[in-house]
Structures are given as C-alpha cells and as structure tokens.
Amino acid sequence: MSQERNRQMLSLAINNTIPENSEVLIWWLGQSGFIIKSRDVCLAVDPYLSTTLEEATKNQPWKRHIRMGPLAVYPNQLHCIDYILCSHGHRDHYDPATIDGLLQGNPNAKLIIPPAIVPTVKKNGHASKEIIGLGVGEVYAAGTLTIQAVKAKHDAFDWTPETGYPYEGFLIDIASSRIYFAGDTVCYEGMSEELAGDKIDLAILPINGCSEELLELGFASNMTYEEAANLCHTIGAEQMIPCHYDMFTINTEQVGRFVNYANTMQERIRYWIPVVGDVYSLTKVEPMLSGTEEN
User: Average pLDDT, stretch 164-177?
Assistant: First the structure.
C-alpha cells in the first residue's frame, strides 16, 4: 500500500472514529506524538508531522536528522483536534510547521504549552489563536477534560523565576482514565513520590536515554528503557507506552530492548508497543495485556 494511501486511511480513522462512552483511543504519530481521543474531546500531543528538522540539519553531518519512516499523516488532514499540547520547545515536540498545518484543519483548536515558550509561539505567528500557558502545578479544566502540568528535567530543570519550568509533562484526565504523558525527561529525585499518588492508568514515557557523544552534540537526555519500565512500576501505573524512538537515526533506541527488560522484571508491567497507524483502546473495562514476546 502506498504511503499516501496509508496517510489517507489513518486520517480517516482518526477523524471519523467515535469512541464508546468512557473509552479513550490512542494513535501514535511517531517520536513522542500521539492523538488521544474520547467521545467528547480530541488531543494532539507533541505532534511532529513535517520534515523541518531534516531540512534544518541537511548540511550538518555531525547532527544530521535522518527520518526512519514516512510522515504518519499530513497535519492538515486531521479535522477533529480540539487541543494541541506541546511539552517544550524542541522542534520534535513543538514544530511550527506542524502547528500551522493542524490549525488549518482545526482553526478553533487551543494550544496548551509551558509559559516559557509562549513568546516563541506567538512570534511564530500563532498569536491570533487561543494559547494557554499552563505552568507546573496549574490545572486546565473544560468539560470532561482536565490537564495538569508537571515538571520535567531534560538534563536540567532550567527553571527561572521569569519563565518557570521550560520542560513539562502532563497529567491528563480524559473520559474515565488518567494518562501521564512525561514529555522529555530523565528521572529525578522525588519524581516517583510526586506521581505515585495519582492513580495513573497509562504512562507514556520516553526510552531513548542519551550518550556522551550525543551530549557533546547538544542533545538532551531522556530516561533509558530500564528507567522508564522501573518508573512505571514504582508509580503504580496500570500500563505503559514507550516512545521517543524510531524517528531519527541519530537519536533512537531499539524498542526490543525495552520488551526484553520489561518481560524479565521481577514485578511485571503491562505495556503496549505502538505502531504508527494502529489504534489502541484504553478503558478500565478491557485493560492492556502485558507483552510476552522477547526480541
């Protein structure tokens, strides 16, 4: 099947599928990008649906971003988005070209972002849209949706009194479920204690880690696949989706390593390995089964 046909089918599925009551449907867009949809509301979280990073680094072989797969969809193919959430300002999480495309198809969509990047977002031409700067500890609520910003540590917190925390995660209450979307973060002191009391149904966590070579090139760290699996268990999350891999050859991880590690943990965790184009139904009635295959 052609890439164009795949994009058309995925966009039709996202736009037209109506979840059951209390059901949450999740599509992976690649990297840390997800569509999270209930019967009442639809979120695009950290979507990267362009080739701007590839173009920006094409003459920089030391940090060339080479895509490992085609675009899942074109952003202007999606017409059901109510909110666009961006966890921080790195372009694979906040991409102006992707935001422009999504707003073409969803002119009333609201942007929820850290206050630290509000000036950048407005400078990039989105000032006429509704932008919600949600600081760490603050809560946005509308109808059946509640979003709380939590801090993230992308090597450092980089907090300042003027802008607060530039890197965030989100606790998302949608339909009958609570989702922890970590954004880009390493594990930090007190993290487990901060999250353990939140009764998380699903944790979406990065697994790509980092290396000394990447640090020297200016890349920031995320938790490793072992740390992500252990965090899922420690905070008592019902299940987990690993992410932030298989987008760029320069900064990825083999998800099979996560599978092998998770399957040999003394305290097993449940997880779903996402595939671009597949949909996962998250409900409390039909929980995800744990993985059993080793790669």
Answer: 96
Alpha helix (H) residue ranges in 17-173: 52-56, 96-105, 118-121
Both tokens of residue 58? 């094409």
What are 271's strand-pairing partners?
Answer: 240
Contact call for residues 21 and 34 (beta carbons, < 8 A): no
Q: Which two tokens stand for residue 92?
A: 């694979």
d(C-alpha 167, C-alpha 24), whole Å: 25
pLDDT value of position 134: 98
DSSP 50: S
Angle at 43 between CA 236 and CA 190, to 5 degrees: 30
Neighbours of 52 (CB within 10 A): 16
Contact between residue 238 and residue 195 where contact means Cβ atoms under 8 Å apart? no
Residue 175 in contact with residue 40, Cβ under 8 Å? yes
| Radius of gyration over every alpha carbon of the chain, rounded to an integer in angstroms | 18
**In whole angstroms, what separates CA 4 from the centre of its chain?**
24
137 three-state secondary structure = coil
pLDDT at position 290 is 44
Give the chain's end-to-end CA distance (angstroms, integer): 26
